[in-house]
């Protein structure tokens, strides 16, 4: 079962694929800003919850090891009690000692196997969680990078369009009044905008 954040990423990919190309372009697309921002907003809200969930899975490693250690200690304690009872009740002390030692050795081996298996399971869970989280963040990084590049291209295109219109207006005014230098028609607002654009660049 996929998580909500995976579903959101798939929705963003499907939405981008469904967008129409801009006229005379095979790479630029036209997107609905509100729809895309809504998906990205939900993605930002869900990402911390997903990361916390996988951090919780990773933290379960300690719980798994503690549980395995507790079971191992209980097995050893029970074995020691049995060994002590065998020694105290048996008429042949040597045989009882041999049986108790063998029982302790077998119990220790079982306990170590239990701890080793628990350690392997917890490590596998941790690696899987880290790998999934990294893949999720990689997809998010690609989407955000694409969004930034697309926004930058649209901004530059908008500035060029405004500048073109300004040049036409300035030229038309110059043609109407050829005795006045074209530079005198530049308004303070335009100069201030251009200075602001230079600072931003």
Question: How would you summarize the topology of this molecule?
Answer:
Elements: H1 4-18, E1 20-21, E2 29-30, H2 33-89, H3 93-176, H4 188-200
Antiparallel strand pairs: 1-2
Helix pairs in contact: 1-2, 1-3, 2-3
Short description:
This protein has 201 residues and is mainly alpha-helical. The chain has one domain. The protein has four helices and two strands.
Spatial order of strands in the largest sheet: 1-2
N-to-C SSE series?
A: HEEHHH
The overall average pLDDT, rounded, is 77
| Contiguous runs where pLDDT drops below 50 for at least 5 residues | 187-192
What shape does the CA trace take? rod-shaped
Fraction in helix: over 70%
| Oligomer status | single chain
Distance between the termini: 46 Å
Radius of gyration: 36 Å
Count of individual helical segments: 4
- Provide the domain count: 1
Q: Could you say which structural class the secondary elements and strand pairing correspond to?
A: mainly alpha
- How many runs of DSSP E, i.e. beta strands? 2
């Amino acid at each position: 079962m996929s998580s909500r954040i995976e579903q959101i990423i798939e929705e963003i990919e499907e939405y981008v694929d469904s967008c129409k190309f801009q006229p005379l372009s095979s790479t630029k697309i036209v997107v609905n800003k509100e729809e895309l921002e809504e998906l990205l907003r939900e993605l930002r809200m869900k990402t911390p919850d997903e990361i916390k969930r996988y951090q919780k899975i990773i933290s379960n490693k300690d719980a798994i090891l503690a549980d395995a250690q507790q079971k191992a200690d209980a097995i050893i304690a029970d074995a020691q009690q049995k060994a002590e009872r065998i020694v105290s009740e048996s008429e042949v002390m040597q045989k009882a000692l041999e049986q108790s030692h063998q029982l302790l050795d077998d119990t220790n081996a079982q306990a170590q196997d239990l701890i080793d298996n628990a350690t392997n399971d917890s490590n596998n869970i941790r690696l899987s969680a880290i790998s999934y989280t990294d893949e999720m963040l990689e997809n998010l990084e690609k989407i955000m990078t694409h969004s930034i590049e697309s926004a930058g291209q649209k901004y530059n295109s908008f500035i060029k369009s405004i500048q073109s219109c300004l040049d036409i207006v300035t030229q038309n005014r110059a043609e109407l009044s050829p005795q006045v230098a074209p530079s005198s028609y530049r308004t303070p607002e335009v100069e201030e905008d251009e200075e602001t654009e230079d600072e931003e660049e």
